[in-house]
Amino acid sequence: MTNTAPTVDAVRVLTINTHKGFSFLNRRFILPELRDAVRTLSSDVVFLQEVLGTHHRHGERYDNWPDAPHYEFLADTMWPDFAYGRNAVYPDGHHGNALLSKFPILHYENLDVSITGTEERGLLHTILDVPGQLDLHAICVHLGLREGHRREQLRLLCRLLVQLPADEPVIVAGDFNDWRQRADAQLAGCELKEVFVEAHGAPARSFPARFPLLRLDRIYVRNLDIHEPRTLYRRPWSHLSDHAPLAVEVRFQ
């Protein structure tokens, strides 16, 4: 079927580690408040990390626990398409990465980049049908806590990127846990540019959300122009996760 929708020239992007729906230090379950805040931004594509698919014990404990998986609850009626990549599985449930999209998701695949004997990690690769544009590749990332593991996971990310068509636009976003700022040098060979580095000379401070000091979260792009990246560190965002969300508008070349 031919897509007759008007050409889309720009996409508003948001990435956030949802901290499994809990506030900093797990003091309160705040997923409904997080959904309300995310809806105010009218983002076109939302990258989510540490989002719960299900958790039976929490579901019995909290009165406002949604019946749907958290990514479906967050998508609600604003993001008709969504994809989930289950990474960590345990007796009470599972969590992983998710992507919410206002554009049709043509294909998605969750790539396991876990290092044996450590925490489970994945790269959720989705292909979006943006009217009037080449396929948009959106890759949601949550990397490990150890530098050696991150280095190997970034190598696997680069292996994925070199397999994509060279002219198609790419967004890679999420929680890189890259507090030593080593990722840029490794990803330079994949022709990715980080939006805050391009605009401000350094990645954004995003952790902890209330007093951001560490530069853990990133948004990288390829074949896209960058417009006004920003860190959402003021209320209500500072109380809705342990990571501050990052937002940017990207424009097609």
Task: Give structural notes.
This protein has 253 residues and is of the alpha+beta class. The chain starts with 9 loop residues before the first strand and ends with a strand. The relative contact order is 0.16. The protein contains 6 helices and 12 strands. The chain is globular, with a radius of gyration of 17 Å. The chain has a single domain (10-252), classed as Deoxyribonuclease I, Chain A (4-Layer Sandwich), CATH 3.60.10.10. Helix 4 links the parallel strand 7 (136-142) and strand 8.
Number of self-contained structural domains: 1
CATH architecture: 4-Layer Sandwich
CATH class: Alpha Beta
**What fold name goes in the CATH topology slot?**
Deoxyribonuclease I, Chain A
Q: Count the DSSP helices.
A: 6
Order of helices and strands: EHEHHEEEEEHEHEHEEE
- Order of adjacent strands in the largest pleated sheet: 3-4-2-1-12-11
Structural class: alpha+beta
By DSSP, the count of extended strands is 12
